[in-house]
Amino acid sequence: MLTESITYLQRCLQIQSTNPLDGEENVAAYVYDLLTSHGIETEWIEVSPKRICLVATIQAGVSAVHPKTIGFSGHLDTVPVQLSEWTKDPFGGEIEQGRIYGRGASDMKSGVMAMVSMMLELNQRDDLPNHLKLLITSDEENGMTGARHLTERGDADDLDALLITEPTSGFLGYAQKGVVGVEVSCTGKSAHSSSPQLGQNAIDDLYRVIREIKSDRFTITTHSHPELGPVVASITSITGGEGPNVIPSQAAFYMDIRTIPGFGREQVLTALEEINQRLREQDDSFSMKVTVIKEIPSCETDSEDLFLHVVATTMESIRRQPTRRVAIPGGTDGAMFSQAARSFPIAVASFHDFRLAHQIDESIPLSEYEETIELCTRLALHSYT
Ligand SMILES: [Zn+2]
Q: Peptidase M20 dimerisation domain: which residues (predicted)?
């Protein structure tokens, strides 16, 4: 079985699926054919013509008592390749001294193919204690539109638990920060620069907003999570002005805010509205608008949760060392799935080394792939009642 699983992973690495270029649909087609040719019911879901998600299900055996629906999820898109710097073919799936190389070897074609391998093997059994649902997403690296689409369709609504096999080097991720990206714009009134008093300078107004954000009165960054740390906010771009001798009527900046559970979009908008009120009290022609451009929720699973405990102890028994629980600094599709109609525990874990994710000569030891297949299989077969 392992030999076949390695061949599947090699084949998967040989199909380019760098985001935002083309190819995600080709790797999805490969996995779809693999699942359906083994008799696994799989749905082909087109998010957009080149962005495909797959949902594959296996029902529990008829003798199962109180079966749970255990979800497994991963993405098939990868980040681009800096070709000239690679010493291995990034789309070769080469194996050398027990390591497999290729873009996505760590993040996260190995994770996806470990789950697919588990599904192929368990589909042959008729005594499964749980329903198994594999959710394969597109576009995780850019906008998580695949996971968002599946969540909106209700594909995660029947889950009792979800494992996301992102590379975590054997750590167990249970919480992650979110992102709120806002554009703050000021609208003034243009005038000739020789008579600024006839206009309303939007850049001056925007500067006043920035001064408020940099002052002690803007308190969003005092909110903190014990593991994820504080909310952080950065102004990352700025635009404005119409010409060298025109009082600007438009100016805007973009602010990226990394959020924590309990502090998200609503709290960011409230804090900015307070600034708006304060500045309007000082100048009634001041005009400021806030537009939310990006929103990825933060999420957290209760550390006492049974599923997290089962994942941790299963990892411990495979590796024979304690499993460290960690907050994930970056985002995963779990953020989107956490918005499903029904809430369920989400664990982000695999044995795949994350240190080479997104790097030159991305690779993992095949032993980690074998351990991750084992993890998925044991979690699928565990009785959670
Ligand atoms: Zn990833």
A: 174-278
